[in-house]
Amino acid sequence: MSTGVIIALIVIVAAVLVVAAVLARRARGPQHGGSLKRRFGPEYDRAVARHDGDTKAAERELAERVQRHGSLPTRSLEPAERERYEARWTAAQERFVDSPREAVGEADRLLAELAGARGFPDGGQYEEQLAALSVHHAHHVDGYRRVHRVTHARVDGAQDSGAGTEEMREAMVAARALFEELVQPSRHDGSRHRAGADGDGRAPATRAQHTWSFNKRQPKES
């Protein structure tokens, strides 16, 4: 084989390797963004909107959240703790009929305490707690954001209007989904939670009973 042929082969191989490296690098970019979009769902779209459509900036923010909170160790609730939180949530739902603003405020405080009890940042660090929750409960964290916003909105003369009450009701309903995720035993809880659980590892009938309780009262709240 002549020297010229060898050189030509080396050039071709080098060119192929360069093209392969470029294609692999391009492939990693969309894959990273795609995985963040799947993980964060509606939170991904919210981050993009907050960054005025700059997806790279939004993805950097979300990637930083995962880096800070992705390996956050969470703790399980003791059965007595779980019962206390469920009782407080039920009481807040019942209070909504006569005092919607107070009920939403209690839901906001309750979610902050419950998240802290599960091992997320303390409720006094609302933004950091919300960011951590968004990593692990991205599809339901907006309910917490909504009750917090309603609770801390400036009180004005329109607070008792029909629109305000409806907004509070919707916030309460949305927040319930996050509450139910936080109050239930996680998939990673140890066997100590399985002794009194159903075959799928969940506490027996607690979730179904809790959801039924709120739905029974909803006609009065609408």
Automatic annotation (TrEMBL):
Region of interest: Disordered: 184-222
Keywords, in A-Z order: Membrane, Transmembrane, Transmembrane helix
TM region positions: 6-24
Lineage top rank: taxon: Bacteria
Protein name per its UniProtKB record: Secreted protein
Species in which this protein is naturally found: Streptomyces ambofaciens
